Every structure is written in structure tokens, then in C-alpha cells.
Amino acid sequence: MSPTLAANGDVAGTKSASGRISSVYSEVQKSRIDHELPLPSVLRSSFKIVDGPASSAAGNPGEIAKLFPNLFGQPSAKLVPSESDALQPEKNLNIGVVLSGGQAPGGHNVICGIFDYLQERAKGSTLYGFRGGPAGIMKCKYVELNTEYIYPYRNQGGFDMICSGRDKIETPEQFKQAEETALKLDLDGLLVIGGDDSNTNACLLAEDFRGKNLKTQVLGCPKTIDGDLKCKEVPTSFGFDTACKIYAEMIGNVMVDARSTGKYYHFVRLMGRAASHITLECALQTHPNITIIGEEVAAKKLTLKNVTDYIVDVICKRAELGYNYGVILIPEGLIDFIPEVQHLIAELNEILAQDIVDEGGLWKKKLTNQSLQLFDLLPQAIQEQLMLERDPHGNVQVAKIETEKMLIQMAETELEKRKQEGAYKGQFKGQSHFFGYEGRCGLPTNFDSSYCYALGYAAGALLQGGKTGLISSVGNLAAPVEEWTVGGTALTSLMDVERRHGKLKPVIKKAMVELDGAPFKKFASMRDEWAVTNCYISPGPIQFHGPASNAVNHTLLLELGAQA
Ligand code: FBP
């Protein structure tokens, strides 16, 4: 769907309307704008929506049923080919869309997907983009999206078309504000593009609107580079594929640098919040000497000392082989996986919640002995980072904790000790890296571009089909795009409850790395070899054409049972 181009390559009005100036785009950006996106074959002709069996919940169905009396049990939906379009083409829809949480490559394509659906199958409809995340819904800050406005964002990274935010719609007043916006814009539907918390929020909003007999339906869409929002029906979250490929390119480059100088150990911390999916995927793509997987550290109840010893053992073994260099991958959330640190963080959370931190350090008396000892052992920078403000969901902001620097310091101390004992004769120089924000806004891979477009297009169909409380789901992802399956999964079926502040709260459980899953097993079977031999792989930059351009990430392929 490319609109008529002006002589300068820009669509009239594009510059002032949306802030992006496509005439100054790089050749690659320009070529991506007009990249034709394939749609799953079911979305290319007439289809109908078929409901599956009644659904339950991921855990505690009784409690979820009480929390979602209007939505619990509703079936998932599947789009199947039909003789004629079973939806109502004559109906104009008013739809809102919002981006929630951290950026993930492909978000713009979800919006393009729902926009094109409405243009092609519900002509005369209006798409509103809420600005700045859920706060845009509450404050009714929006922009009406049209062909010219969205054109420069097609297949481009970032969330700047409407921007994102981390606010939550939680309190009765905030639900009321959302209701007022829905009524003011006469919204038939709202698509929330977000991670686990945002999709939980979308479901609460769908329940609230249905309970009030509002016509506004609410759907979710699985977004996060972290890769921790997935289940059988939602095989992956968008953005994971692109982010991992960007990080893997950078890791590959650092590996060649390490091999070239022969003098540095590169400690690379990778984004991904609690789960280690990104770290695991990057390891499978590049073959580093050491990879720490947070979920394994937690399962084996390892201490910080155990993790340091493991790293130092490999460094010593490599020194004996003549290698005083290497590459070590560390997940962003590692610190949160170490049981003794978890206890410390829990105690710090209580203390911070009571707002009793004083300059004199008397607050430390509130810590148990074990936590106090650990806190005092940590480098000062890490102590300060652990005390930083929590995010709106109450989580420690792991992106701000420089675990890679801490591990370099701890390895240095241990290696010095071993040197004095005569057990280590090498040279150690650590270089720290954090690969995080660099991966969130890259040009989406062919996979993420097509996946997102299909997710958005499917959301349009589900909204037109009267669905609410579902998450847009596209499956069979190891097959060519034409064969992908399309539908919506009941959000309540992904939910469990957690007790927070004495109350049961619904949550979509984060999907963590499974130690008996195929990706971890493949990694575990190769890591000892990678530790001592240098079988580095440099995947190079993301390709948009040619043999590697449609390669899907190892994690997804292995989880789907395909050969990676
Ligand atoms: P989402 O879960 O919202 O997708 O965020 C992903 C993420 O990039 C994490 O990997 C990272 O820990 C966090 O966002 C950083 O948050 P912020 O953008 O607020 O610094």
C-alpha cells in the first residue's frame, strides 16, 4: 500500500504530520518502506472466525473465574477460509491502538497491519493512535492515523509513530478515565501492544468494559524483545528475533576483536529483564566461551561465589592452553536469580517501601545478618544501583545494575588469589559491555516485519468479528508465511494469580528459560567445547535479501521442534 510519492520521495504532509522525514532516510530504510509484506494465505481471501472449546486458566482457574466473571472460559478463535466474508464489511469501526512498555522492533508494522485491514476490509473506519502509552488513553491524547501519517514507519524500527509509556491503568479512577476516552471517541475496539503486564492490563480493561456493557472490545498483542511472553498458541513475542540478531552481530564482532588482540576478556551483559532467553539465543548464534543462564543459577541455588568460581575456572583452564582472552555472556537479570541476592532485594524492597533510608546508614540495621554481609561485600556502585527506585510494576530496574562490572571485579580478586597460590599464571584484563537499548529499535528482520504485520491484520479481523479479551496469535511460524495460522487466544487462559500486598492479583506468568527445553539442552551439550576451543561465529548484520534473510532464530525453531 504505497501512497503517491512527491518528487522528493516524501508523501505530501508526511514531514510535518509525523516527525519522520523519509526523504533523508538511508538507502536501506527507503528500500524497507516499500518492502512488500506477505500475508498468511488465510488473510488474503475470504475467511470466517471459528471458536475453539471453552478455555481455562494457566493456574488457579477458580480465582481467575472470580476476577474475570465476564470473560473467564471464553474460547480462543481461529480464522479459517470461507466461501464469502463472514464479517460485516459495511460496518465502519472506530479503533484505538496503543504501544505499551519497552520498544521492540516491529511495533510500527502491527499498527500498519491493523490500519491496512481496516482500509481493505472495513472501509471508512478510523484508527486512533494513543500517544505515549496507556497514559494517552487515560488523558485522551491521540492522533488520527492515516495513510500519509503511517507511510514513513512501514518496516521501520522504533515506537516513535505514537511513542510508548509504562503507565498502568489500575485504579478505579484510571479505569473511569479509560471509559471516558472510549465513550468520547465512540471506540468499537482497542488494541494494546505490550508485554505480560500490559496484556494483563488489557484483559482487565476488556473485563471492565464488558461489565459496564460498553461496546469497546479490547485485544492484546504479544510484544517484548525479552521473549518471555509466549505459550503454545503464542509461540513468540515480536522483537525478540531482531534484537537477538543485532546483539549476536555485536558479540561476533567482539569475538573477532578478542581473538585479534588476544588480551581481553569481554564481559557482555545482555538485556532481557528476568528471563535469559536473549542470552541463550545469542549463545546459540555465536558460541561464546562462557554463558551464564539465570534460570540455571536459580535452579542450582548458586551463590555469587559459585558463579565467580565457574568463570574463573574456565579462565584458568584457557590460560593453560595459552588463551588469555575470551567472551562471556551474562543475562541482565542474573542478579535477581541468585537466591542470596533475591533475599537481599526483597528486604531492600520493604525498606524502600517504608521510605526509611537515612544518610547515616541506620536503615541497614533492618537487614538480616546474611543480607547485610552480602550487601557490604558488593562494590559500592552495585549497592547504589540496588537502591534505585523500582519501576511502576515494583521490579528492580535490572537494566541499571552493572553486573558485568561486578563480575569483572570479583573475577580479578579470585584470579589474584589463585595467582598467589600458584594455580594461575595468565594475564587478565576485563572489558565490560552492556548490549541493551541498541537492539530495541533496529530495522525489523523479515521475520519480525511479517509476523507483526500479520498480528496487526489479525487483530483487525478479530475486532471486526466482535472479539474481546483475546491476544492476537499467529502460529506455525517455522513454515513459510503463507502457511501461518491466525487467530486469537483467550487472555484469561494465560493467567494465574499472585498474592501482592495481601491481595490476589491476576498475572500472565513470564515464560522463563526451561532447563529441559530444546534450546537450553542444545546449549548445554556444547558449552564445554565452546569454553576451551574458540569456535566463535560471527553472524554479521541482519540481511533483508539473500539466503540468510528469512532465517528464524534458533530458540523459536528448536521450541517448534524444527532443525535450527
Ligand atoms: P518490556 O518488557 O516492556 O518489553 O521491556 C523490555 C526491556 O527492554 C527489558 O529488557 C529491560 O529490562 C527494560 O525494558 C528496560 O526498561 P526501560 O526502557 O524502562 O529502561
- Largest sheet, strands/sense/barrel: 10 strands, mixed
Per DSSP E runs of 2 or more residues, the count of β-strands stands at 16
pLDDT < 50 runs, ≥5 residues: 1-16
Please state the average pLDDT score: 92
What would you call the shape? globular
- Percent helix, as a range, is 25-40%
Counting H and I runs of at least 4 residues, what is the number of helices?
A: 21
Instruction: Name the hetero compounds present.
Output: 1,6-di-O-phosphono-beta-D-fructofuranose
Structural class call reads alpha/beta
Determine Rg (CA atoms, Å): 25 Å
Distance between the termini: 34 Å
Name the beta content range: 5-15%
SSE inventory with pairings:
Blueprint: H1 14-18, H2 27-33, H3 41-44, E1 47-51, H4 61-67, E2 77-81, E3 94-100, H5 107-121, E4 126-130, H6 134-138, E5 142-145, H7 147-150, E6 164-165, H8 172-184, E7 189-194, H9 196-211, E8 217-222, H10 240-261, E9 265-270, H11 277-286, E10 290-291, H12 294-299, H13 304-320, E11 326-331, H14 334-337, H15 339-353, H16 369-377, H17 380-386, H18 403-421, E12 430-435, H19 446-464, E13 470-475, E14 485-490, E15 495-500, E16 503-508, H20 518-532, H21 554-559
Parallel strand pairs: 3-4, 3-6, 3-7, 7-8, 8-13, 9-11, 9-12, 10-11
Antiparallel strand pairs: 1-2, 2-14, 4-5, 13-14, 15-16
Helix pairs in contact: 5-19, 10-11, 11-20, 13-18, 15-16
The chain binds 1,6-di-O-phosphono-beta-D-fructofuranose.
